[in-house]
Amino acid sequence: MAGQVGRPRKQSPRRRGATAREEILDAASELFTRQGFATTSTHQIADAVGIRQASLYYHFPSKTEIFLTLLKSTIEPSVKLAEQLAATDEPAPLRLWAMVAAEARLLLVSRWNVGRLYQLPVAASEEFAEYHAQRAELAESFRTLAAELVGGDDPRLTLPFHLAMSAIEMRDNTGTPAADAEADELPQIAVTLADAALDVLHTELPEGRGPRTVALLKGFAGE
C-alpha cells in the first residue's frame, strides 16, 4: 500500500488545512505576520505544524517559496477576475466596483492578515519579482477600468486600487477571518470600499451592485 509522501508527523495535526501544504501555509502566515520573515525559520514553521523540518521541504523548497506563495495568494485570484470581467458585457462602473469589492474580500477572508506581508522590507527583494509583476498587472487593471470612467489623464486613476488594498488596515490579525468566504453577501467593509472607489471618481453607483457582483463571482467560480 502506498504511503503518504514525506516523513511521519511528530504529532497529530494542530493547524487548519485539508492537507499538510495548507497547514504549512497557515502556520507560516501566522509566524510571518506576527514576527516577520527574517526571524521566522523553517524549523519554527514545521514545529508549528507538528512535522519534522525535513518533511516541510517535500512541500516547499525554501522559506522564500512559502513567502512567495502567500504573497501571490493575495493577488492571483484578482488578476484572474480582471480577465474574466473584461470578457463580459457588464458596464465599466460595475466591473470596477466588483474588482474593488472582490479584492477587499480576498484580503478579509484569510485567517491571518497576509496582506501585511507586502509591507515587510523583504517583500521588495528581487526574489519576489514574480509577485511584483502580478501586482503591477492588477494595479494596471484597476487603472484601466478607472480610465474608462474619468479619462486616462485623471490624477485619481490609482485610487480604486489603493482603496481595495486598504482592507489590510481595516482588519486584525488574531487568527479569525474578518469575513466569511462562503457568505452569499459581500463583507460590509468590501462594500464600503467599493462604494468609496466609485464615489471618489464621481461615478454613480450601479443598481444592485452587491447581488450582481456575487452572481458574477459565483458564475466565474463554476466555470
UniProtKB/TrEMBL annotation:
Keyword Transcription regulation: yes
Stretches the record annotates as Disordered: 1-20
Skewed-composition ranges (Basic residues): 7-18
Record-level Gene Ontology MF annotations: DNA-binding transcription factor activity; transcription cis-regulatory region binding
Positions of the DNA-binding region: 41-60
Residues of the signal peptide: none
InterPro entries referenced in this protein's UniProt entry, alphabetically: Homeodomain-like_sf, HTH-type_TetR-like_transc_reg, HTH_TetR
Annotated Pfam families: TetR_N
Domain named HTH tetR-type: residues: 18-78
Keyword set, alphabetical order: DNA-binding, Transcription, Transcription regulation
PROSITE patterns: HTH_TETR_2
PANTHER family: HTH-TYPE TRANSCRIPTIONAL REGULATOR BETI, HTH-TYPE TRANSCRIPTIONAL REGULATOR RUTR
Protein name: TetR family transcriptional regulator
Organism encoding this protein: Corynebacterium frankenforstense DSM 45800
Upper classification of the organism: Bacteria, Bacillati, Actinomycetota, Actinomycetes, Mycobacteriales
